[in-house]
Amino acid sequence: MKTYLLTAAGVIFLSVIVSLVIPEGKLNKSIVFVMRMACILVLIQPISGVFKLKSDPLDEPLFDYVYICKVYSENQSEQLEKILSVTFKEECDCKVDIIYKEGNFRLNSVEVEVNTRNEKIIEDIYAYLDGRGYINITVYAKSS
């Protein structure tokens, strides 16, 4: 209630100041009309709450975090495939899993399927990802 009263007083005070400062003429009438409408809207704000039919929009999440995580994961997977292809000269299929937790997007896991059975390359890719700060890393050879 205190916030409402301060807002109403502020709008009315601003309206009075503006009407005193602006010069006479056609523009004066328009500005005074707008300021009066703002005062009326602020004053009837509590009444509009009585007629509210919908639930509070803040109860529903503003973003679809599942979709955002999916798109973010796909993008990160594609970029990691490009990086590994250039770095190790091997084609890989990557799956980076991003989750939304505690207000942040976080890396959940990384899965890399290498198109070769060369254990040295698999170990090098694992070490590379570990050195870059990836967690829950799985690197394996593609099955035939």
Notable traits:
alpha+beta; three-stranded mixed β-sheet; 144 residues; single chain
Please state the overall shape, judged from the principal axes of the Cα atoms.
rod-shaped
Beta content: 15-25%
Number of helices: 4
Structural class by SSE content:
alpha+beta
CA radius of gyration: 30 Å
Order of strands, widest sheet:
1-2-3
Main beta sheet: 3 strands, mixed
State the total count of DSSP E strands.
3
- The whole-number mean of residue pLDDT values reads 85
Distance between the termini: 70 Å
- Low-confidence runs of at least 5 consecutive residues: none
Order of helices and strands: HHHEEHE
Overall helicity: 55-70%
Describe the structure.
The protein has helices at residues 2-21, 26-50, 65-88, 119-131; strands at residues 92-101, 104-114, 137-141. It is α+β, with helices and mostly antiparallel strands and 144 residues long. Strand 1 (92-101) and strand 2 form a beta hairpin. The mean pLDDT is 85.
